[in-house]
Design a protein that fits this description.
homotrimer; Rieske Iron-sulfur Protein; Naphthalene 1,2-dioxygenase Alpha Subunit, Chain A, domain 1; 2 domains; four-stranded antiparallel β-sheet; 6 helices; 22% helix; globular; monooxygenase activity (chains A, B, C)
Chain lengths: 350, 350, 350
């Protein structure tokens, strides 16, 4: 895969997706299968039996092992084969790769690179997760048919919302305000404040603003795979202190990108907010509206990918609004180059 | 693309297909988008934004410009970008190709080659279009999964109708009469008269012949893309003068081929006739029956294309009935070679 | 195609599949069309007209010939063109390959190799076919998306049934009993007896066993394409004579593999049994249950093929249970190599 960072945590799936049986998903162009042991811990293996290459996800979970659905070979959480029906000895080749996997924030996180470096402390922190007065929703996983860097650029790009999402988060009033960009080690943020403006339709639904609003959007990016958009819509005319922002409508909208192939990406989103806590109808509306919003992005980035594939070109003209997206992209390309230099790709067969 | 003539007018679509929004169709393996300005005139651009390559057809028409659905860049009818949100200057690279396009005969015609040569006078004339006593129907556009030259050959080939269209225009009586072929500069015609024969089923439906009929079919071809079949079914025993032919059932059946890729072709057909004028039921029947007839051809040419692709061979044995089709093919191949020599293909990315 | 034996009889289809019109199926990566003459005999030709390559299966059967659906060329059972509309002479190139084809056991058998060697005596004999007290069912043809050698291995592999078919023919009790393998010229058999065991669910349905049963499975293989599984479930404690076996539940389950491409195989199965003769409900149940069982194999071998294609690897670790499948495979690979050396592949275009 191109421009991919193997030494990083990626969302393999939501906890709620993973039941009692094997759970399969392709990550960084490798087939992965996860299964849960009796003590509740997850294990993740290469989804390909070391015997005849049948996906282990067609098998079943037996006594804390994953049993192949073809001949019953059983693999433990380290990928070692621990049982071969019909023979006592285990051939040395009967082993599959295992991947560090851990659960946090309602998600299973997988590390596709060097297991030695798989520090759970590197899992991105989620703001206000579990704090009183805040609530969380996990969006239905989406499948975007585009290289993840196109999606990274989209996520660092406030300028597109006016055109791609006119019915929800887009706001015509914001289209001429240039964003501010700040970069530091492993972090980039693009933000802009819109002052004394009509709140966008979606905020109008969620709160009763008496008049105009100040609104900010902070597009944080933590390379290679985590986007956090902080959105505040607050009564216009107040000072922009943390306390005043918390009295407005405030949300932290996370997206976690998990590259599937060079032209497809698993798109996970999760939303933490301080309004309508316990309001199930609002939960459902946000699930639907935000899901639809991100599918609008999917239409754009998928069409873009098709044209990039057809032409072999990524971009032709450069605009001012490209500054943030380009910085994020360069930051990741640099990380990916260092990652590739440090850990050469392993064979996909083993 | 192979054997394609860029300096020619092609039907991009029927006028009735093009509404108020952008209209997209692939022509000569390039993505094209058309839009209508407030004065009613059409514009046609490459369907690929000069910024991030997103298809412009995902955007919208705003003030006589086409606005990209991603970041709101606006292009005028010349392909020049005239507005970039968030900045005053327009980068020189922000420009897409535009194509000459004009409307006539209820169709939008596009010129994919050198714009300097796009003389509207070269649009094929349609016989009796708008003349009193004649009426026109426009068939639903079809998509034939074959290189257009296979379809050209089919259209210059009276011999196939007996076998491909037994239920409509085919006539067993005609199958042993060799056609006459005449060729001149930019025109080829294959024709045959069938004398004192039973009229085919479709004519029996459209008129009350008391007995036998004389029937002629002229298969005109105007390379590279226009076929006109003149069909007369007249009472047997009369002299074949123009006046007598007009007293029979007479129709001019046009097909306009628009190559989409090397293995697919947009197939437009249009039918001018002097019988049943104002008869809406007949219009509907012809729409249905002729559409079905050409889909019968589609089945054949698409299957032929698959076998040609599988074998790398176009034809194995040569028959007498191939004379007309082969001449049309050679005529076009010669045109295509001259066209390619005069105007080297432009990059597909710009 | 890889590892394919051309000089062999393959099932083209069941007799019941072939009606009055042309019947098309791809065999050994060649398009084949069969048609029935008025005397009832079948003919089989390459499904590609020698004129413009249109599949002859789009045409029709006329007077013991196959008439092309494009221009009416007619081919007899030898593949010679015997009629070209519009001309008296037949061009020498107007000829398609014909294949020996014969019907037996309710199946049409085709020979894709050297016609001189097509001895009908080489068609596999079907045990007890038509004998009193025995009945036959023909399964609905299946399409397995895997190279046929993967399926051969599966068919010579008793070990998989426990895991792939737990609901039908699988039997947990049998999983630790090593099979016996015997090989002779053009034949390999793997078998095992399970003694004093609970009969599997499917046998419980078909007979009233008072207690435990002895059960044997013989996995015969007649390379390159025929598998016969003999299954007996008999009251435990009796001597295993032919007569005693016939008093139990006994069946001969045939599978005939017809390679379609390098990654797909037509899978035909046929079942001869000595119980429930005339019981239509049982016929229907077996049709459904056995069909479902073989589709369970299809899921496995198709997934395996996808992983083999993705990795370029067939197998990684080797187990004791691979002995039988590997022998069958090597036997076929040897046959295929000899076959390829004797008869170089003909052009696919003619």
């Amino acid at each position: 895969m191109e421009h991919v960072v193997r030494n990083a945590w990626y969302v393999l799936g939501w906890t709620a997706e993973i039941g009692t049986g094997p759970f399969a998903r392709r990550v960084l162009d490798e087939p992965v299968v996860a299964f849960r042991r009796r003590d509740g811990r997850l294990a993740a293996l290469l989804d390909r039996c070391a015997h005849r290459l049948v996906p282990l996800s067609l098998g079943s979970v037996v006594d804390d092992t994953l049993q192949c659905g073809y001949h019953g070979l059983r693999y433990d959480d380290t990928g070692a084969c621990v049982h071969v029906p019909g023979q006592a000895n285990i051939p040395p080749a009967a082993r599959v790769r295992s991947f560090p996997v851990t659960e946090r924030y309602g998600a299973a996180w997988i590390w596709m690179g060097d297991p030695e470096q798989a520090d759970p402390g590197l899992i991105p922190a989620i703001e206000r997760y579990g704090a009183p007065g805040w609530t969380v929703i996990w969006g239905a996983p989406q499948h975007h048919r585009s290289h993840y860097l196109n999606i990274v650029e989209n996520l660092q790009d406030p300028a597109h919302t006016t055109y791609v999402h006119p019915g929800t988060i887009g706001n015509p009033a914001s289209s001429d305000i240039a964003p501010v960009i700040e970069e530091s080690e492993g972090h980039i943020v693009t933000y802009r404040w819109t002052l004394d403006a009509e709140p966008p339709p979606i905020d109008r639904k969620n709160a009763n603003f008496s008049g105009l609003a100040d609104r900010c959007q902070y597009y944080h990016f933590f390379p290679p795979c985590t986007s956090r958009v902080d959105v505040v819509t607050m009564q216009a005319g107040q000072e922009h202190t943390e306390a005043n922002m918390d009295r407005g409508l405030r949300a932290f909208s996370y997206k976690f990108l998990t590259p599937e192939t060079d032209t497809a990406t698993h798109f996970f989103w999760l939303h933490v907010r301080n309004f309508g806590v316990g309001d199930q109808e609002l939960d459902e509306r946000l699930m639907r509206d935000m899901g639809r919003t991100f599918e609008e992005d999917n239409v754009i980035v998928s069409a873009m990918q098709r044209e990039q594939d057809a032409t072999g070109v990524r971009q032709l003209a450069w605009l001012r609004i490209d500054a943030g997206p380009s910085r994020a992209r360069r930051m990741i390309e640099k990380m990916a180059a260092a990652d590739a230099a440090a850990a050469p790709a392993t064979s996909t067969a083993s």
